[in-house]
Amino acid sequence: MTNSDVQHLKQQIQDVLVESGKYDELSNFLRSKLYQVGWTDEINRLTQSIVTNEAKPTFSNVIERIEPKAMDIVPEHIKTEILAKIEEFLKDVVPK
Amino acid sequence: MTSTVKKTLEEAKFSPPVFDSCPHLKQILTSNAKDTVYRNYGLAVNVALALKLRNGNIPLYKTSDGSKVEYKKLARLRNKAVRCRECLESLSCTYFCLQCSHVGCWKNGHASAHTKSTGHVFGIDSQTGYIFCFRCGDYVGDQRLEFIRQSKQGERTEPIMNNLGTETIIDGSRPPSLKASTGLRGFINMGATCFMSSIVQTIVHNPFVRDYFLSGYHAKCTKKMDTCITCCIDEIFKVFYGTDETKGYGPTALLTAAWRVKNSLAGYSEQDAHEFWQFLLDEIHKSDTELHPELDDTSTCRCITHKTFAGQLQSTVTCEKCLHSKNTVDPMLDLSLEIAKISKDKVTLNDCLDLFTSKEKLDSMTICSHCKKETTRTKQLLVRKLPPILAFQLKRFEHSASSSTKIETHVGFPLFLDMEPYTVSETLNSNEQGRASWGLMTYQLFAIVIHIGSVNTGHYICIIKNRDGNWFKFDDSRITLVSQDYVSKSNAYLLYYILCQA
Fold it and tell me: CB-CB: which of A17, A20, A28 is closest to B438?
């Protein structure tokens, strides 16, 4: 499969996710889970400390510092759960 | 003086921008291109906010012949429009170029690369409609652009009308000082009155109640402070937000009026803050409906107390044999939660909510009216309607005939609370696809009241988040800035959450 084929397939998957409403559903589910485990609170706290310690805080430099950490501290079980849901959805949609 | 105020009122038609301006934005908005900019921005925001919820519903779109456009088609069209031109990414953050038809993603750097190669400067966030300046690396704002964005979002763009009439306001006013506008002022403890002052502080910093009083909704009351508790509260708002004074305020008028209305509040022992909160809310409800009788004419009271705090609880009783269920709906002003006794070492507010909404088996056997068999029943409580401010009481105090005890267990509470799992499924507004419209059930913590010490000789303090996101601890007349960690570690008794805008 060429690079362009992969890109095209990715686009089609994104389209199906959005049109079926599944993307919104998954997005909301993830957001809710992250609230529940206190991830959002932690990000809030980290962002506050980054902004306070930064001489001239801008969206760019703050997100540069927080994004990798934010991805890193998502609990494993949530990542697994979301991936499983996406896989299940794709099984029904993507032809083998 | 008058001309300054008049100008402010004119400008008040436009909502304040969320972000500061930047030299690049200032330059383009004073150039010949500015009208094109306003027009293009409006068009871009239309797409960006096309499917955003308005009042809990997806907006309705019609074709030129009047027929309704299906959600699926709208989603497809919008998805196509926000797609990055280089890598076809559409789910994460992408930007519409303000100066041409390019759309670029953030993730793979295509938006940024576009600005570098063309010299274009601004991108419009395809999810929020905010403007990003690629030179400054930051979101920027402007009054008129913000007005355009808010009107596309269907938000109220008129300033809040005051209750007294515009003329009175123009003639008699000056802008408050920055210091006064924070409303930060402590109460002197007049002898075990911290149960009162802690609760009043949560009211003083409650945005809905504050707007009500500062807009003059109680000004027409003809009673005086010695007989009207709400007048005393009105006075507190005036003094706290209108003057620069920061030394402790002695709430003598409030105390006198409170003792007059409710004898049990007098005396030297510490009272329960929660009881006082209920009492105060009731007084405000009575005053508001007295001054504005039209608010209480239907089954739902629309006074400031009820508009702010009132929700509904649904109790469902189910027959265990035939599963037929019966619902009763009751009004509520807050949720009183038992502290869950669970095996893991940290109990949280969510655990207590789980307990509150769990299915409870009712002891008695009865004849089911539906299947006519003798059966046991289960009962479950769920929230049916969520208020803008959700108040919680953790049942820490147990009073029996012989003694009173206090449960000191620390209950962990989130700074952001999602109430969706605790609501009735019909509470969710389903759109045509049957999906829940989310984002209407997330709350943000804004105040807690803490009880320190034993049942009878305790002390109350409160911690409240102000407009800038700073947490302040109010300990009688001492106000201190505290950290988020300090808040999370505190042993809360009463908690107040405010609905987050999605």
Answer: A28
